[in-house]
Structures are given as structure tokens and as C-alpha cells.
Amino acid sequence: MKRLILFALLFSLCTSALAQGFGSGGAVTINNTTTGANRVLCSIRAANMNSTADQACTIPAAITAWAPLSVLATNCTGTLTLAVGGFYPATSKGGTPLIAATQAYSSLTTSALVLMTTLAAGIATNRYAINTTYFALTTAAGSAATYDIYLTGTDLS
Questions:
Q1: What is the DSSP string of 111-155?
Q2: 138 vs 51: CA distance, rounded Å
Q3: Cβ atoms of 55 and 147 closer than 8 Å
Q4: Which terminus of the chain, N or C, has less C-beta within 10 A?
Q5: Coil/strand/helix, residue 20
Q6: Is the model's pTM score more than 0.90?
Q7: What is the number of alpha carbons within 13 Å of residue 2 lying toward its C-beta?
Q8: 71 with 152: CB under 8 angstroms?
Q9: What gap in Å lies between CA 153 and CA 86, rounded to an integer?
Q10: pLDDT in tens, 56-92
């Protein structure tokens, strides 16, 4: 009986603490500034999938060195049957691509899906000291569509 009461008390304390932090529906800020941390380095919200122009993904200036882990795509608003393109360290599809220019986005058919793109060969072993990367399509979607892009990596600053 004492164990049951103790469990109920602990459960009540834990859930009330969670409710105070997250139950109000307010915004939660996560400050993860630890060197060596894996996190989202930058994002492009509503990337235009019907454009072959450079779309910048700006990494905070406090991150002076990083290693890529993945580029995720989600929250698609249209059909991306034709969309193919990559992620680059320089404008005009310059430098060694992080994601190859042949990456297809056709599997993103609804906003509920997530695509983990394929990093180009050898990219995961590179250390970068740039603060802007660029998403650029080789072939546009052919109709209006957007999606969100997240570059994740390890902060080596």
C-alpha cells in the first residue's frame, strides 16, 4: 500500500511539473549552445519547389565550425513529381554538394511526410566553416509547391 501511495505521489509531482512547463500551450525555447551538440543548424521554411534559384540557409554566426549529419525535408504543400536538386556550400550550385543535384523529392506527397535526403559521398566526414548553405533545384516541380528544409549537424565551434 505504501508503494502505491508513493507511486501516486511521484506521478502527481512529475505530471504537474510537466503541465507547468508544457500544458499552457505557450512557446518553449530550447537554448542548445553546447559545442559538440547535434542540432538543426539552419532551416528554410516554405522553400520554393518551383524555382531553380539559390535559396539560402543561414547558420548562426556563433557556429564557426560544423559537420553535417542530414538534410530533412517535410511539410510539402504540393506535388513534387518533377522536383530534383541539391544542397550546396556556395551560390550557383558551387562547391562540392552536400546533397547531390540528382536528389528526388517525389516521395513528398503530403505535409505529414519527412524525407531524409542522402548526403553525398564523403560529406559526413567534412568539417565546414561557412555560415550559409544553399538549396537549389536542378529541375523545378512544374507547379506551385513549398516545403520546409532542415540542415542538421554537429556544432564543432
A1: TT-EEEPPBPTTGGG--B--SEEEEEEEE--SS--EEEEEEEEEE
A2: 9
A3: no
A4: N
A5: helix
A6: no
A7: 0
A8: yes
A9: 17
A10: 999 999 999 999 999 999 999 988 889 999 999 999 9
